[in-house]
């Protein structure tokens, strides 16, 4: 006589617990833990455009860096100058078709749990914070923050920075952001005539970009530049 397969692996009080129930419980606990991690600590995104090259790669028709955003840095403080941040669309920055939603139910579930890279957000570098005067440009084509010229080694084409002059004062609670690929970045400069003036509210920031995890050849830890160290 063939032995019967065991369908229980534990007990709940005085009753046997079915195997399927234990598996479902473990999956639910794992999902809840993932949601907690996504809400409070880490979240994955992909880079949908070329606006942050060479720091981040985002070819819409090719390779797109997968990045990990950490949220702990902004527990109790606002973003700082020079940090690369992911933020929600402040309103009208993302046109239709500029990002891809998860394409199936499994991807949607993983995206909800923070395990599948999300779209629908933007990634830029913080250039000015609340109270800063940000001006473009000095005689050498450098941005000035509070009168201090900023040397930006991370910019793809430094000559492109001065092609669109501006002089703004960032309101308290807002950010002025720009892409590292100044010739191909619809950032704060492109939205100066919008109702929001091109500023990003602090509370729209999801977190600070910490790592590039994929593709393997692009993996990196992002460090904050020293370019803004002398700005008061």
Helix content: 10-25%
Mind telling me which CATH architecture of the largest domain this is? Ribbon
- Provide the structure class: alpha+beta
What's the end-to-end separation, in Å? 83 Å
Provide mean pLDDT, rounded. 80
> CATH H-level name of the largest domain... which superfamily?
Umud Fragment, subunit A
Can you tag this structure with a few keywords?
13% helix, 14 strands, 2 domains, 4-stranded antiparallel sheet
Brief summary:
The protein has 232 residues and is of the alpha+beta class.
What does this protein look like?
The protein folds into two domains: 8-40; 42-221, Ribbon (Umud Fragment, subunit A). Helices cover 13% and strands 28% of the residues. The chain has helices at 19-40, 105-112, and strands at residues 8-12, 15-18, 42-46, 66-70, 84-88, 121-129, 133-136, 143-145, 148-149, 166-169, 174-178, 200-201, 205-214, 220-221. Strand 8 and strand 9 (148-149) form a beta hairpin. The protein starts with 7 loop residues before the first strand and ends in an 11-residue tail after the last strand. It is of the alpha+beta class and 232 residues long. The model is unreliable at 5-9, 96-100 and 109-117 (pLDDT under 50). The protein has two helices and 14 strands.
